[in-house]
User: Fold these one by one.
Assistant:
Number 1:
Amino acid sequence: MALVKRFTQFVEPPPSKPGVAEGASANEPTQVPKIETRKMSFFYGTKQALHDINLQIRDRAVTALIGPSGCGKSTYLRSLNRMNDIIEGTRVTGDVLLDGEEIYDREVDVVSLRKRVGMVFQKSTPFPKSIFDNIAFGPRIAGLTKKSELQEIVERCLNQSALWNEVKDRLKDSAMALSGGQQQRLCIARALATNPEVLLMDEPASALDPASTARIEDLIFELKQKYTIVIVTHNMQQAARISEMTAFFCVGRLVEIGQTKQLFTNPTQKETEDYITGRFG
Amino acid sequence: MSLHGEVYERRLIWRHRLGQCFEWMCRLATMTALGMLVVLLGSVVVTAFTPGRGKGLAAVSLTTTGQSSPEEMFKVSNIMGGHFELKEKPDARISEFSAQQIRDNQVMFNHDRAAPVFDLKITSPGREPVTVIDVRPGNMPKDLSVPDVHPPTPAKPHGWLTLGFLTSFNSYEPTEAGILAGLWGSVWLISLTALMVIPLGVGAAIYLEEYAKPTRLTKLIQLNIANLAGVPSIVYGILGFTVFSRMFGLFDSQKTVLSVSLLILPSIDIPLPFGKIVLTGACTLALLSLPVVIISAQEALRSVPASLRHAAYAIGATKWQTIWHQVLPAALPGILTGVILSLSRAIGEAAPLTVLGIAAQLSYAPGRISKISDIVQHPEGLLKAPFDTFTALPIQIYSWINESSPNFQHVAAAGILVLLATLLTMNSIAIFIRQHFQQKIRW
């Protein structure tokens, strides 16, 4: 059953379910979380970076991870699509569930996991190729070769990331020639090209000017109707603007998770309050 | 110590002066290096374009070496060319000694039987005989000098680097000598070397850099590769001689010939052990340049930003796809630089080839392909060439330098220029390729 569900999602993302995002609290059992971590700990060698993180991430919503530098929020984000596997000597304990299935299981193929859980990095990293090839790379390596299909995907993704009108006449140009903001939107388009279910964003706008940042935020707002988005940000205004849920991390621990509005106006933990009011961090 | 005031000001002036001194020292070092290069290149160019000593008559002197022996030996010195005509008077038999035969400055002839009498006629090409000496036993001129009658006409007045030099094989006559065999030999040698060293070197670098876990063994291998890069080339020559040329003496001293027939293609004869064929040289040079290629390719792979790999992984690329589609293209300019550097070193190597004992001078090119049209006429030569004996540019140059005739020095200089030109061509092709790839990749 889960397989069928996943397959249909691959073919076409199902329409968004209206009204679920609003008014539901994190731990309410009315909705199955898209991603869930239970007592998850993370180690760099012998150094423990994350301690017993219990977190549920809602489907088709934006979850923001905030916290001071070095608190483990990026590590947490990267462990959701096993990007940390690349680093030697890292280890995860506890459960990380995607649609209720453990992603650190032996039989889970990292490649197909990363196809389902896309990622956008802080520094825009377009491949040193043409704009078209950048976006077509994901489908191509997955085995899609038909030119018309690829063109369709490229156009859809560029439209989704609001870049199509700016680059439609120069798809053959190098992606390196784009501006910083355009590059970042290209990276988002590239991540969308493999039709993921979840988008992980690691401070996607931190290196951009305010105008580009605003465009990225608009984009995230659009995308959350179809995708589950987890975003790490240092900018608390940004977190407040775009996210439904916010999780506050501090020194490898999840301090608080709650609805964004509630967390920013009425935090339950002292540490959270100190952080968001600027007294700490 | 004060950070202001007079002391500080004085010290500041000194600091600036010291900086200027440093700059001048660096400038001097650059100019010294540049000057040496100019002198080196200049001397080669000047030698290559200086007309040689030509044919004609220079001062000639004849000396007998002894009278007791039935064989008379004439020592003829200072002769650059012309003809010696020894005419036996009774039956008018003519024996001619060309300039080549008196190369060693000795003319020997036998006159014990009938006590013949000779006329020694010295002529210059296209001229009347100038000196006729009556030579008979017991009447040998003890020390005979012929004055300089004809000033020599210079050989190769337009220099030695001519089209003829490039398109002809070697000759005992310096003016006729050409570099064709070495040129084709070196082209074959370096092509085969590149063919072997690029996949081996880049493959090893990819494995060590991308796949191998940083264990103690990997570190040991790394260290040894770095050490191998510094091993003198002659050592590789000895290695190549044992492994490829002799094949550990596994085969008879008499050559076994392995005939390989390929369906439609003509059969190829592969000598076992390899002996002095192109493949032996190419394998040896490939071993020689492998460490440098591996090290520079590793360096190039390491300089590819990690973000590129992560971006590819995040899209769902496998490790192989990440390396093949992203890392390798990005590292290609750097890898090519290393390949060019090491191949440039390999093409100029004479020492390992000398140890292999390859022929100094040959009058054919590998596979008997000595011009492009030969490939069309007998294309099977392309298959045979790697298993053919050969000579290479540095070896030919080296053998010319060892020649006694002074004109060969000019030939050697012209050969050096050809070698340098080959190197420059190779490098510019590679730089062109690198630019092409770098244009695609802009960070």
Number 2:
Amino acid sequence: MSSVTVDHVSPGQGQGHDHGHDDHHHAIPSGWRRWLFATNHKDIGTMYLIFSFIMLLEGGTLALLLRTELFEPGLQFFQPELFNQFTTMHGIIMVFGAIMPSFVGFANWMIPMQIGASDMAFARMNNFSFWLLPVAATMLTISFFVPGGATAAGWTLYAPLSAQMGPGMDLAIFAIHLMGASSIMGAINVIVTVLNMRAPGMTLMKMPMFCWTWLITAFLLIAVMPVLAAAITMVLTDRHFGTGFFNAAAGGDPVLYQHVFWFFGHPEVYIMILPAFGIVSAIVPAFSRKKLFGYASMVYATSAIAVLSFIVWAHHMFTTGMPVTGQLYFMYATMLISIPTGVKVFNWVATMWRGSMTFETPMLFSVGFIFVFTMGGFTGLILSVAPIDIQVHDTYYVVAHFHYVLVAGSLFALFAGAYYWVPKWTGRMYNEKLAKWHFWMTLISFNITFFPMHFLGLAGMPRRYADYAAQFTTFHQMATIGAFWFGLSQLLFLYTILRCYRGKGEVAAAKPWEGAEGLEWTVPSPAPFHTFETPPEVK
Amino acid sequence: MTPEQRRRNRITGLILLAIVLAIFAWIFFRGPATLGGVAIN
């Protein structure tokens, strides 16, 4: 069971200043030192969230530049070389700079409060793992201005192309190393915190689903980030130190890179979606006013997804010429993932079934997530069929599929989580009307942007092309209009959240959502600087 | 955090770090040979 009964914590009691410790320990630092030397999990969580939103804007701007060029056939604004740089950097920034750090931000804010811990296990390492990110982001951004420009090998950095590019490629490799190191440190912190620092009585099977999904995600990170690090280190040594890992002329194998990369790359997809499952699993019960249906099966389904994610990597490589037996294996193994994923979707719907539902913005985004993410899941199932994948490989069908998973999946859940927990973070309720406008604009513009891409892909439009045949114009123009609408809609989110941070809006109660459960709602809003210095007793 | 908790955290963290380093080293030094490449043997 996930529900917890807290023995002796009442609203306000979880804060730190009521324990009589010395003031030096409890003093809240101020000014720039508070942020540069931050060791408090809430401050670090806030920095992660701000950083990831800035990267979302940077990656989004690159996407809008791509869509601007694609508004009409022919080359209007950018040469194909620069277009490829935009494509590559959009992918790298969104994956490593926006989505992953934002979930780490949520983990920092919520995991200690949800398990009744005073902070993350390694507070200084937490600080270090955050501050690596702005350095990496700066390296990525300045790579546009080095000779040859930024890397243009696609976010997958496939060899041998990546072994041949200019210094922008080296900057990208170093930046990804830093971001990978940051992720590994964040994962170690999450695992140690969850395993060793839970409040008395908070057994693993009483933990909120968000903690469970993050624990499993952290193990995935530990297992696959070193694989990515090794792959790009091999590219680096091929480029500068005379090795021939991926150079056929030197006895190496370019396809080896794809195997190693996708051994990281497929679990990476789940790294970006499992915490989203956790957020939705917190919100759906809260606004259905019911307990989460099938808590244990949710835990097992999440674990099953994680395990299966390690044995399906070559479904990204059906066109590289693998034996039919290999294709069959990877096809059926990939299809298997739909079973635990189906369990989760079933459980969310069953939680809502006959619930006393209300549709505040976190719930709207969660329901939107379930509906639109499931569409992305279905196109994934279609892509797992090897003969179909061979036809639509590297077309816009694939672009549509993974944006349905990562935007309607990860990003919608992030918005849902932000609206759900922002009263706890800021002590203020967001403006419900503006937030609902944000939801509907986002949902509609998202589908206008990405739904036509299915048709483009089925008709043969290849991805990563700056130009296209005239027959694709209408769908591309729809996508471009939708993309600008989607981008502008996010300014509403920024405004709505900033209002809360600036102290505008209704004062939030300790537990602003009637159906919400968990330790985080036992502390006041905004959450005090120190919480649970005396661990709560969970029954 | 109690000293005992710190000690357990440190041990768990070091075990996880060792796993990370082992995976990196195996992929870099043995992965290519095992997966069919011959760049380093």
Number 3:
Amino acid sequence: MDGLYIHIPFCTRKCNYCDFFSVPARSDALLAYVALLKKHLSWAVEQGWQGPVNTIYFGGGTPSLLPPQCIDTLLCAIDRQLGIVPEAEITLEANPETVTKASLCGYQKSGVNRISIGLQTLNSEQLACLGRPHTVQDGLNAVAWARRAGFSNLSVDLMFALPGQTLPALDRDLEQYLQLAPEHLSCYGLTAEVGTSLGKKVDKGQVILPSDECYAEYYMSIHDLLTAHGYQHYEIANYARKSHVCRHNMGYWQRRSYLGLGAGAHSFENRLGGCRWAVPNNLDHYRMALETGQEPAVCLESFTLREALVETIYLGLRTAEGLSDRELDMKFGTDLASAFPVAVQSLLPWLTKEGDRWYLTPRGWLLYDRLIQAFF
Amino acid sequence: MDQSHIRNFSIIAHIDHGKSTLADRLLEKTGALTERERTDQFLDKMDLERERGITIKAQAVRLPYRAANGENYIFNLIDTPGHVDFSYEVSRSLAACEGALLVVDASQGVEAQTLANVYLAIDQNLEVVPVLNKIDLPSADPEAVRAEIENIIGLDASEAVAASAKMGIGIGDILETVIDKIPPPAGERNAPLQALIFDSWYDPYQGVITLVRVKAGVIRKGERIRLMATGRSYEVQKLGAFAPHPLELPELAAGEVGFVIANIKVVQDAKVGDTITHDKHGAEKPLPGFQVVKPMVFSGLYPVDTGDYEDLRDAMEKLRLNDSAFSFEPENSMALGFGFRCGFLGLLHMEIIQERLEREFGVDLITTAPTVVYRVTTVKGELIEVDSANKLPDVQYIDTIREPYILASIHVPNDFVGGVLALCEEKRGVQREIKYLTANRVMVVYELPLNEIVLDFYDRLKTLSRGYASLDYEYLDYRPSQLVRLNILINGDPVDALSLIVHRDKAQYRGRELAAKMKEFIPRQQFEVAIQAAIGGKVVARETVKALRKDVTAKCYGGDITRKRKLLEKQKEGKKRMKQVGNIELPQEAFLAILKVKENK
């Protein structure tokens, strides 16, 4: 296996746009959960998952609610049972309000070498509107402390297309972000997910999100500015300085195997067509399964070769490197244009070929959900 | 059974006035249905009929009844549909009867369709027995409705039975009144056989089943019979009656109603209205038949998935077996590919066929806007019948176009007369008559072009009268008219399936409105979509569906790839119901957008 994902489904409070699985954090619950993760790890090893791992990603939820000792124990256990390659990328997602100078130093010492800080925006009004529990100052502190703790691979989240956001406001936000000189940025447009508190407000007309035209304009404006500053737009929503592309996330797009530990975590095993599992979003179920020695994950889908080809395209076209005809031929015995002549034809204004690689332009990425359906 | 103890009758009622419920009560009261079989509305066999609460095909049920005088009777209850599209089936059913129960909702009064059917019954010398239904409703006003029946129809309603089919009130009275008022059938038992076919349908196991009323003579199992229209002869394999389950009988004699199965292979051979007689010593003359029904409304039906063409044809052939009023022939559209031009009795008939094709046969359909049959005289003097806008010759070849007119009678409460008149005027109507039936109820009679009716007339009539207006119409004649073809262009290319024939005075307005409506129905696509309406070469309206600017949700946390991808797969599945025209995807509604165009003067 290539990657290891560890899900920490705890949050101090739920942000009003979030539809991911999380529960309120209590310290005893956190410690009990870490014990379960270790059990889960042992179980997975018994089932035949093999290391060493190239990338580890603590995602959430809010992984930075775990004290550094917990991260340390987990990394030790992983190294002991699976092995961690020396140059591994080990990422921890951190929310500004949960970190201190000391905790960041602790994470660094435990072996975490990439930190992803959930800034979202440096505009205090809009931050409040998102219902984030941190302030702009919390965010700036977190970044400064992380640098001081020695993190030389730092990622920040930027959210755009916020209610009432104007292009100049976004530009100001970006200017401030650039001053932090992050190695990596994840830029997400705010979407009103069904069932979230934001979703309900948008339905009722209490909150108005920028139009699709604005979204497109903001998206391209971010693209233009960040690429001008030497960032590579390497995936729909991700930018990085050279050699700081997130290897763990690239693993998802390239269909490499990963093991997911924790309630709500997903795993993927890429032999033959591939197979994907998920642990249900339920802490009680998770505990019961592990305590009674049952597989906590359920199989979501296993792929035929044809389905694997479609998913390879689906995921590959999210990235700037796109799809290589040679690799498609090696894996599936076909190239893109012969397997999908009609789809390729209909996507031509947005789909480009350079050398042996096909990829979508940034304008194409804006229509990704629509365009990609041509291959289904 | 001797004739004096037989009663053949139907029930005439407006939709919702309780005919099916009453029929069920009669079945129950006479013991024809067991407790277990009392699903609601037994006579409405098809699911669709039950859902829409309307009866589509006629049926005949034999009910044994022991009367108050202690004697045993046989009742044949012949069911009739209540919708204007199916009035031809009503007259067929009535031909098998000596009487009819006129069921009127005691809170609503007489409706246009009821009136039309009562006149059919009176024309055929039937004894009409009024029944005031729903007398249990607080709003019931039996005396007013009694007066209405006397004033409007001219029937003596003093002895009208007060009933509530729903509550089971007055059912016994109705049965006794049938014996007292409706005459027993006449007809010589010893005369040569004459049996009138008033319904026939195809059954996959038995072949064609015919419903007959024996007018003279006797028909027995095993006899050789001849269908007088085709001259073909058959052997009677089974005969009997529906009670309501099939009950085999040794014979059916003059005055009786029942089914005959005679190894007839196709339903077209057992034409409704034909006469059955004996192959040898048969009757000299057939009974007077019925007018052949002709489809009045045409539209194109196309499979969304071109691969379903064969399935669609098979499904249509099956439907036509039992519905001689439905016709179809292959048609080819540049935009939609291979499909069929279909003929229907009216809009309801069209909807029902379309729904049955989709529901029972699982074929997704595109339906094009309904049209009527135009008669075009070319400059060379040829006469062409045009049932599709695309078959209309170019202007320079046309001498005159004539369009069908109907005579529409609308019954409406006083308050809504203004609205109805405005609607009829807007629809190019010519007023014939306005008559106060009672102080509060008005009959409005208009001559109207059928092409206006097939668009949205009925819906608008219902809306403006809050459901109180009722409509009946009969075919009148063809009249010369200034008609033009309105073309719709999508990104510059005319889409043949969207063309319409409209009156010149309305063409521009309709074009504008139609383009605007289409814009609402066509979802944003990767490309800009230009919708234009054109008369001849002249563009009269243009709308633009702007290109999709953004369709992406970027988040993909923790490797949860399956959920998101499946969501998109589902979206794609939903799009398969759209029709690809060039590189544009058109939803089904876009092809019927004309029906949604509101007209305001």
